[in-house]
Amino acid sequence: MNKIPLYEKIGYAMGDAGANLVWRGALAYLAVFYTDTFGISAAAAAMLFLVVRLSDGVTDIIMGMIADRTTTRFGKFRPWILWSAPFLGLFMVLCFTTPDFNDTNKLIYAYVTYIGLTLAYTVSNVPYSALMGVMSPDDTERTKLSSFRFAGAFAGGLLVMGFLPELVAYFGDGDNAKGYQLTMYLFAALLIVLMVITFVSTKERVIPHKTTSGNLKSELKDLTKNLPFIILPLLATTLFFYYREIYSGLFFAFIMTMMTVVIKKLLNKDHQNLTGTQRDMVDLLTNKPWLILLGMGFLTMMFNGIKYGVIAYYFKYQVGSELMAGQYFVALLVVSILGALATGKLAELIGKRNLFIISLILSGLLTTAFYWVPADNIVAIFTFGCAAEFFAAMMPTLFFSMLGDAADYSEWKNKRRATGLIYSAGTFVQKTGGGFAGALVLVVLAGYGYNGMNEATITQSLPGMQLLMSWIPAAFAFLGAALMLIYPLTPAMTQKITEDLAFRRSNV
């Protein structure tokens, strides 16, 4: 059966509603929590966001491999959603807890708890994302499912970003540290309930044929030999991004040159002599749709992450109303739900690629308008913000739907399917983009002299906030539109792949 029942689409959406109690909360409020409540400097917090993404580079890929090789009576991916839920809730609370430590120990605590949160999120969200790729073999159904997923995601984000300031004020009664912690207890309990609903209501229908000969232990051992492919480029990029000087630039250039040589050698190697993980890497590196989507995931998360990451600062200092940020988030997320739900129908009419390009250009243009909007013109702020967000909501919806197409393309071309690995790279690059976006917000603010614990530095940092609301994120949207022009999977080719795979599976 290719068609997914309505109750199952809603049940699947509940999982991302739960995940976004974490993801949207951390993305929108964790930076300002660290700098203004916990007392960590903006520069130290920026480095924290970047370093944690290095661990994500390893854990996402490992989790994708583990999920692909998991075999239970409940399927490959669904059990992980259930098993990870309590840990995700626990670290959500710990991240927003403020122990009375000195500055050094505060930073250590932030690293430990934030790494714990991202690890728990990986264990939950990589299998959750991959589940979309095996609930139906039909790409149209996956697009509709993705629309439901992100409607749920934005609904979860609506609860966090729309009401978190009020809940913090209510529970804290003047004590923000206490308010954050008690609010996260509430969200953690709700998260676990939503994850259980997803586990119970969904079903895995696409069962790939076994394509690996080694067991999981040997494959993971093999992966450790190939970790430099992941860690070194990330390390070089992180150092260059953070320090932006000649030595980090030279290190970046050296690593990228070396990796190019090694990758070319790997691609030219006889496939019969490749290990399982090397074959997986070759399949990914020769999957043009996936490579383009990898770039798109990063660019769209930079675009959306920067916009969301600066909102709390913008309303607190530019507009002069911290609580109005919550109202703005509510407006954005209501519009986001509408945008996500409209994506499936619009994609049927004009195609996923064309819709992706249009959404990037229009959202980018509307975002640039913030550069000229006065901070006291609340109507204009809400109007341009909501209009831009309607199109921005289509980006993750299309991205995760198209990852399923890339998985189909890999199976069609290579006769091997690694849904978890393809989606793990997708979730990783989205988290990497989110981490770099959060770090870029803090780097720009630090460059303008911002110090959340010193009010005298606020005025000089206002131009930086204006740029972060307008031209800086828009630049990533325009780059994404240019990249999407070379995406190769047309509707006709996607339909042919779907039909060929259906025939191939029915004749095994």
TrEMBL record:
It comes from Pseudoalteromonas rhizosphaerae. Belongs to the sodium:galactoside symporter (TC 2.A.2) family. Gene3D superfamilies: MFS general substrate transporter like domains. InterPro entries: MFS_2, MFS_dom, MFS_trans_sf, Na/Gal_symport. CDD domains: MFS_MelB_like. SUPFAM superfamilies: MFS general substrate transporter. Keywords: Membrane, Transmembrane, Transmembrane helix. This is MFS transporter. Coiled coil: none annotated. The keyword Transmembrane applies. The keyword 4Fe-4S does not apply. Residues 4-492 form the Major facilitator superfamily (MFS) profile domain. The chain crosses the membrane at residues 38-59, 80-99, 111-134, 146-164, 184-202, 223-243, 249-267, 288-306, 326-343, 355-373, 379-400, 421-448, 468-487.
